[in-house]
Amino acid sequence: MLSSSMRERFAVVIQPAARVVAASGMPPNLLTLLGFLAALACGVLLATGRLAEALLMLLISGALDVVDGAVARATGRSSPVGAFLDSVTDRYSDAAVVIGMAVYTQAYLLGMLALLGCLMVSYTRARAENLIPRCDVGLGERAERTLLVAAGLAVSAAGVIEPAKGMYYTLLLLTLLAHSTAITRITFTLTALK
After folding, report:
1. CATH code of the domain containing 13
2. What HEC string does the chain produce?
3. Which of 65, 68, 90, 94 is the catalytic position?
């Protein structure tokens, strides 16, 4: 889940946590699936307006998503199957959270636009990296989008802003961030291909 720049900054925390989890013998793919289930729970809790619980599930999902790859690398269990499973569950996790936000705020069109943007961030990178060496540009990678949603949930759950309004603004910012990142990747790739 963490972008490469964020992964480097947080390695001091992630690596020791990964070693502890690796020592427990828990398979990295199980961590991936547990993270996905936590994201599904987050989406359901969001849809039903249980924002504090949704925040907790989002944080658990994010933590598991960060640790699963580090555990795989630490135990020598990195594999194409694990990488594929991680990518697929990440997309479903994104969808669960965005759908939960859309249902809670009743902003269905905005939710569809947010979901499209989140999917296009991933798709533009995957497709571009079949044509050019790297395409990890843009501000809205999955980690940054998750942090945005977590901040929106925290502010809304704490009552700093009226909860439905706070989540609506979070969904709007998520939409703008995701689409701006996808557009950045499209223009970056087109420029690189010239």
Report:
1. 1.20.120.1760
2. CCCHHHHHHHHHHHHHHHHHHHHHCCCHHHHHHHHHHHHHHHHHHHHCCCHHHHHHHHHHHHHHHHHHHHHHHHCCCCCHHHHHHHHHHHHHHHHHHHHHHHHHHCCHHHHHHHHHHHHHHHHHHHHHCCCCCCCCCCCCCHHHHHHHHHHHHHHHHCCCCCHHHHHHHHHHHHHHHHHHHHHHHHHHHHHHHC
3. 90
